[in-house]
Write a structure and sequence with these properties.
By secondary structure, the protein is of the alpha+beta class. The protein has four helices and three strands. A three-stranded antiparallel sheet has the order 1-3-2.
C-alpha cells in the first residue's frame, strides 16, 4: 500500500533574508524524510494562501522593522512511501538492479532507470 504525506514549510527570516539558504532548507527536509523511507513525488514553491488578516500582520511586521524581519513563504512537498515492504515486486526490481550492476559496474542507478523506461 502506498501512503502520501504533504509537507509545507515557511518561516520568518532576519536581516532581510540575507542568511537564508533556500537550498539548505529544502535539502534538510528532503534528507529528513528520505531517512524515514519517503520519496518525493512533487515539489512546489508555496504560493501565499494566507488569510487577509495574516497578510496584514506580515506586512505590518515587515514594514515597521524596515524589512529587517520578513516572511519566507517557502515550499510544499508531497512525499510517497510504499508501506508494503515485503512486496515481491520491490524485491524483483532490487534483484534486477543488483544483477545489472554486476555487469555494468561503471554505470549509475540513473542509467538503469533510463533503460527500464
Amino acid at each position: 500500500m502506498i501512503s502520501n504525506k504533504y509537507v509545507e514549510h515557511s518561516k520568518w527570516t532576519l536581516m532581510w533574508g540575507i542568511f537564508l539558504n533556500e537550498e539548505e532548507e529544502i535539502q534538510k527536509f528532503i534528507t529528513k524524510y528520505n531517512k524515514e523511507g519517503w520519496n518525493i513525488t512533487q515539489f512546489q514553491w508555496s504560493l501565499s494562501k494566507d488569510s487577509i488578516f495574516k497578510r496584514i500582520i506580515i506586512f505590518l511586521i515587515t514594514f515597521f522593522s524596515l524589512g529587517f524581519i520578513s516572511y519566507w513563504h517557502g515550499f510544499s512537498i508531497i512525499f510517497e512511501k510504499n508501506t508494503n515492504t515485503n512486496s515481491s515486486e520491490n524485491n524483483k526490481s532490487v534483484n534486477e538492479f543488483t544483477e545489472w550492476k554486476k555487469t555494468n559496474p561503471d554505470k549509475s542507478i540513473n542509467d538503469f532507470y533510463r533503460l527500464k523506461k
